[in-house]
Structure formats: C-alpha cells, structure tokens
Specification:
Elements (H helix, E strand, L loop, with lengths): L16 H14 L12 H8 L3 H13 L3 E4 L3 E4 L13 H15 L4 H15 L16
Antiparallel strand pairs: 1-2
Helix pairs in contact: 1-3, 2-3
Length: about 140
C-alpha cells in the first residue's frame, strides 16, 4: 500500500482548506494516482508538510469517509475504499495523450501556464455551460 498524494494548499483561493484536501483526494482518485487500499498521509504528516491544523485534515478525512471514498482504521490510518478513475483519464489513455500533445504545442508556441489555464477555463465554460471547473490546487499528487 502506498501513499502518493502530497497536498498543496492555496490560502488565497477562498476555498476552505479541508475542501481543498477533499478535492485533491478526489482528483487523485479520478486520475488513478490513488487506488483502493492506498493509505492517506496522517494528519500529523499533512500538518508538517502544509502547516495546516491536524484537525482540518481530520475533518477532510471524515468528509471522504462520509462520501464512501475512505475509511479510518483505528491505529492503522486512513485508507482509500474505492476509485473514481475512468479509463479515459488513465495515464496511457488516448484522450490524455492528445491533451499532453496539445500542452506541448501550447508551450512550444510560447503560452504561459496562466495563458493555458485561462484558455482551458474559457473552453470549458463553452463546452460545459453552468458547470464549475475544479482547480485541483496545483495537482497535489506525486508519484
């Protein structure tokens, strides 16, 4: 069992810290970076890495437990109980490969990270009117 999520907290985002943690775990689950059986970092580890109060992390983990995505095992830690990954988002999927190629082209044409983000938000808004694009807060996963 591995723990592959590293949380990135954006204190200027206006999003509650515990929700940032929840969303980053959900994103890691969708992208396949976290799988069923994986152990999440302890509240103390998250506090040391992010300077977030351990109770904030525990609140996020309780929310993940309520959603059926994680379970707390007394004395052992918090573990992922199910995946949100879809085949289309797997690292080797054709859709993801196309997106990676597009990102390479954008970089080659001189677009900055902010330019790409703005373009993505604009395109997303046109394709999915009325829906919010999740930010992921810097990705949050490391392999």
């Amino acid at each position: 069992m591995k723990s592959v999520v590293v949380f990135r907290i954006d204190r200027r985002s206006g999003v509650a810290t515990y929700l940032q943690i929840v969303r980053q775990v959900e994103q890691a689950l969708r992208m396949g970076a976290l799988e069923e059986g994986d152990r999440l970092p302890t509240a103390a580890q998250v506090a040391a890495d992010t300077k977030v109060n351990p109770n904030t992390t525990l609140k996020a983990y309780r929310e993940l437990e309520r959603a059926g995505l994680a379970e707390v095992r007394q004395g052992a830690g918090t573990f992922i109980t199910r995946s949100l990954a879809r085949p289309q988002s797997a690292p080797d999927s054709p859709l993801r490969a196309s997106l990676a190629e597009w990102m390479d082209r954008a970089r080659a044409e001189g677009l900055s990270g902010q330019d790409v983000s703005d373009l993505l938000h604009s395109a997303f808004g046109a394709a999915y009117p009325g829906e919010a694009l999740g930010t992921g807060y810097g990705g949050g996963q490391e392999g």
